[in-house]
């Protein structure tokens, strides 16, 4: 195994503000951790144009059948899997439209798979298995910015012409140089040296929130600031769905619930029915002709 100089990575260096971490009282510990966490949003702001560019280039690809594919190892991989999984109930995507890959497969969600993250070929193989094309969007996630699994995946994604992005927490990262859209967020040393599930993980989660939500807004799955393609898979989401219909159409809850039922639990369809006094088929035709947007283009 080749030697890796971790000391050059800011995420692996010691934080001068937390050298006495093991001697702090609970309130002192919470205070210093909160202070360090506040630096994350500031660091992300410096990369906002790069994030916006990635979103803008991703929207037409996703709209035309491309997939959003995250890949990472350890915490980074788990965050990608989490964001992908939550797109299904929030935006009504299918599990095949937003995919999270983690080095070592599903079992690595719970327990680390030895050596998986150090294998470039494994990253390539996971994308080959998905039959990626130039329609797809592949985003590599690695706090260090050098994880071989992610490097291998991004190199292959570039070869097939997929849109590539990278999220790292070290400036000048390897994956940032490989991807078309490299996002290097300088969060600085962790409060607990090398524990990149902390500030680095927070930064990654915030950026993934931006990317997936931004793409979904761009393809018409949001009206105003309401998630109109929410999937009502439990009682809470049913109530939320009816509330959204009522809010947009200015109808009382009884009428909103009736639309919800008539639309066969399709919130967006129910809203169009309520706004235009359409039946379900007419609402579906309206949405088809309007690229899925409630607002008229």
From TrEMBL:
The active site is at residues 86, 117. The keyword Cell inner membrane does not apply. It comes from the Bacteria. Pathway: Cell wall biogenesis; Amino-sugar metabolism; 1,6-anhydro-N-acetylmuramate degradation; Amino-sugar metabolism; N-acetylmuramate degradation. SUPFAM superfamilies: SIS domain. Residues 58-221 form the SIS domain. Pfam families: GKRP_SIS_N (PF22645). CDD domains: SIS_Etherase. One of its GO terms (biological process) is amino sugar catabolic process. GO terms for molecular function: carbohydrate derivative binding; carbon-oxygen lyase activity; ether hydrolase activity. Its EC number is 4.2.1.126. Belongs to the GCKR-like family. MurNAc-6-P etherase subfamily. This is N-acetylmuramic acid 6-phosphate etherase.
